[in-house]
Amino acid sequence: MRHGKHRFLLGCTKEHREALMANLASALLRHGKIETTLAKAKALRPFVEKIITMAKKAYLAEDSAQKLHYRRMAIARIKDEDAVATLFNDRASEFIKRNGGYSRIYKLMPRTGDAAKMAIIELVLGDDVGYAKSKKRNAAKAKKPTPSKRSKQEQKIVSDAAGAETTTIPDQSGSEAATTEKE
Which domains are delineated in the chain? Predict the structure, then answer.
């Protein structure tokens, strides 16, 4: 069975896909933000986040052999030593306080030539909180009482019990749909 085997295929061979991800990741790590198609951005996100996790582990490692091991694993995937050096030497400390979610995707307007869905993928810094939900709004929803939903028969019984006088007016189809109350 192929449960849990989802992979972004991108309409190309495995070798081409690996080279594409390596090139996109090195551009993202160098520039911090790139514009690409939405499918490529969604495929790039897990790829680059695993490499950033390697950089975090190398930054926190005590053993120099362990640091070198993580760096070599990243170079094997990206194949660009300058981009890996930038990540491991300069940017790894920015992601220490963040537990995952190192990249963010913004959707853009479709490309004019072929109407491909476009997106911007960017690196998120460790101190970026993103979009926080409003606590006031959630608290107001919790305190607000929900109105009771009664059927028309229950409403008629309640109004009769309260002593109100009701009259039913038949509509054009012959059923008693509209009611009026007199006080």
Answer: 14-128 (3.90.1030.10), 149-182 (no CATH)
